[in-house]
């Protein structure tokens, strides 16, 4: 199946600058080997970005505008029969990529790989960073303002699995508790084993769904190994474990319909360590999808 690489260069969802440069860096790295189409969407340089931690709705309007454009691009590419790989940017861009998949394929599950659960709302967020709200927004758990552009199904939280979480805000825990989403922590990965966790994740995400959206946040990896992220969290997984998670994902490629790689921040990277890991994830994903002939395609009347 043919892929399309979509760069979503926005860091409006976090008070730290730099994630907006991640997509262009990775797209440039792929130019010499990638034969498919590349699309680059970059936030307006004229935007005066709010970094005020007391502002619970930082850059809400600007994020909505960016994600509306990204959503329309994603929908168009999926309609063409292409497999979208979206490169962030901060994790707020996943509201557009995941819901675009949901609009076309209608009933999908989601696997969210992240050190954070991203299940805050405007009422519970401590930092006001909107990249801490996208999973809730995609699941239809409040946050209506972040998906105004979407006129299809939300992704059922009961078909959503978060993997690798180790930093959950106090009020966010209640959101998760009442939402129905399944969470596997970093400790779960180490205690149960990656294969067991991933197998269970796919059982949940594929139950009575047509396909699965994957969103892979690089901050799931320990910052000693991958320092180039905006909000690092200690005690993460190592590089081998990160690639094992990818391998387990790609073993289920026949039910995956879209893929995000997010939160590379080149301004925070050291010796391009995080960039190289992100590039390995991206290149392996492209190679697997391009070789695979049996990815589910869903017919839809327009």
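-> sequence recovered:
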């Amino acid at each position: 199946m043919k892929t399309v690489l979509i760069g979503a260069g926005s860091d409006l969802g976090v008070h730290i600058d730099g994630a907006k440069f991640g997509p262009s860096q990775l797209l440039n790295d792929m130019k010499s080997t990638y034969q498919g189409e590349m699309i680059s969407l970059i936030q307006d340089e004229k935007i005066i970005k709010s970094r005020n931690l007391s502002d619970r709705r930082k850059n809400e309007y600007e994020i909505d505008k960016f994600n509306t454009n990204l959503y329309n691009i994603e929908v168009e590419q999926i309609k063409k029969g292409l497999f979208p790989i979206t490169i962030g940017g901060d994790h707020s861009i996943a509201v557009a990529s995941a819901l675009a998949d949901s609009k076309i394929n209608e009933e999908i599950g989601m696997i969210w790989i992240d050190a954070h659960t991203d299940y805050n709302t405007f009422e519970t967020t401590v930092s006001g960073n909107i990249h801490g709200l996208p999973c809730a927004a995609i699941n239809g758990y409040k946050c209506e303002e972040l998906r105004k552009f979407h006129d299809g199904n939300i992704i059922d939280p009961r078909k959503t699995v978060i993997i690798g979480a180790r930093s959950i805000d106090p009020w966010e825990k209640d959101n998760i508790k009442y939402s129905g989403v399944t969470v596997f922590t970093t400790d779960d990965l180490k205690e149960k084993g990656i294969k067991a966790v991933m197998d269970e994740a796919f059982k949940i995400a594929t139950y009575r769904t047509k396909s699965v959206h994957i969103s892979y946040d690089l901050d799931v990896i320990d910052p000693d190994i991958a320092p180039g992220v905006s909000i690092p969290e200690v005690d993460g997984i190592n590089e081998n474990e990160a690639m094992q998670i990818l391998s387990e994902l790609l073993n289920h490629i026949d039910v995956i319909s879209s893929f995000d790689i997010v939160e590379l921040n080149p301004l925070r990277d050291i010796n391009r360590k995080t960039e190289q890991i992100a590039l390995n994830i991206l290149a392996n994903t492209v190679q697997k999808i391009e070789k695979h002939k049996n990815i589910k395609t869903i017919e839809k009347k327009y």
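The first helix runs from residue 22 to 30.
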